[in-house]
Write a structure and sequence with these properties.
It is a single chain. This protein has 326 residues and is an alpha/beta fold. It contains 13 helices and 9 strands. Strands 1-2-3-5-4-6-7-8-9 form a 9-stranded mixed β-sheet, with helices on both faces. Helix 5 crosses helix 6, helix 6 packs across helix 10 and helix 8 runs antiparallel to helix 9.
């Protein structure tokens, strides 16, 4: 009965409406400013366009054209020209809404980045071979088909750490194919990343606010991880290993909170301390009271400052003022 109840909840929350494309006003910055200036500067108004490939992938770009459309039906290739343009891979948290992610899309398009938003459903998570791994195949195809996107930045939330880990497993399994693609990565930002141990609690809290139902879902997922090792758990473990190894070997910024019971500080310290042992530059910002994936909303100015400073370190934006990340 518990399994049926939790399955119904997961099924009801896994349905997402898909729109083909849309456009709205954003603003474009003048680079060469300090983080604080960038946060308050008035920008030149322009349009950004979006194209939704499917329920998992949506592309956003600041451009003079009203929209971007694939060159062929079903293809991931876009008509973007040959000039290099920075791209942010935006890995959503579970059950995130478009209105939540729009703020981050706007943030990056204002800086002149294109954005590929990646989202998975609860069913994509619990069925890796038919869900999250398929999504990562599509993301890697997008990067292969659109080589003008370089450099590539990763900005992920919560379960997005697991999802990107699946792509690292795929890249390791076919280095001859993906080695040129890996060279385009320049850095990674992780906001409340959740490790394998945090999946049951994190999914339960993402699916419902009802505490009794949360407890039921968490128990169900604990049982699922124990009994579905070959179908699911082994894939989570492989993804976790790649994340802990920092397989792409690029600098990282971790955005955490003392008040986050899902993406705990000890859980993430085990990750970034391991990166530091491999001499990978790591920067960590720990907020005081923000809930899971809510640091931006609670501490917007400080959050933006940390991200802009990190982008400066990566030479993705210009600026004369740099400071040490707290």
């Amino acid at each position: 009965m518990l399994v049926r109840q939790c399955s119904r909840v997961l099924a009801s929350t896994a349905c997402h409406a898909a729109a083909s494309c849309s456009s709205s006003l954003v603003v474009r910055p003048v680079l060469g400013l300090s983080p604080s200036q960038l946060g308050t500067q008035l920008f030149l108004l322009r349009h950004f366009a979006s194209h939704r490939f499917n329920r998992n992938l949506e592309f956003f770009s600041v451009d003079d054209k009203p929209s971007h459309k694939p060159t062929e039906k079903g293809s991931m290739q876009l008509s973007l020209g040959t000039s290099s343009r920075p791209l942010t891979l935006l890995f959503s948290w579970l059950m995130s809404k478009d209105s939540h992610l729009k703020k981050f899309v706007k943030f990056y398009t204002e800086l002149g980045f294109d954005v590929l938003k990646i989202r998975i459903s609860p069913f994509d998570l619990i069925r890796p071979t038919k869900g999250s791994q398929v999504v990562m195949d599509q993301m890697l195809e997008f990067l292969e088909e659109n080589q003008c996107h370089s450099p590539v930045l990763i900005h992920g939330f919560s379960v997005g750490a697991y999802v990107f880990g699946e792509s690292m497993v795929k890249m390791e399994n076919n280095l001859k194919r993906y080695s040129p693609l890996m060279d385009r990565f320049v850095g990674q930002i992780w906001d409340s990343p959740v490790d394998l141990e945090g999946i049951p609690n994190g999914v339960a809290k993402a699916v419902t606010k009802n505490r009794l139902l949360q407890a039921s879902i968490e128990s169900y997922l604990d049982w699922f991880l124990r009994t579905q090792y070959d179908n699911a758990t082994v894939h989570y473990i492989r993804s976790k290993e790649k994340f802990h190894q920092c397989y792409i070997k690029r600098p990282g910024l971790f955005l955490l909170s003392k008040a986050d019971p899902v993406a705990t500080i000890p859980m993430n310290a085990a990750v970034y301390e391991n990166w530091e042992k491999m001499d990978i530059p790591v920067f960590v910002k720990i907020f005081e009271k923000s809930p899971h994936v809510s640091h931006y909303y609670r501490y917007k100015e400080a959050y933006v400052e940390e991200v802009l400073t990190f982008l400066q370190r990566l030479h993705l934006i210009e600026g004369s003022k740099k400071r040490q990340v707290a």
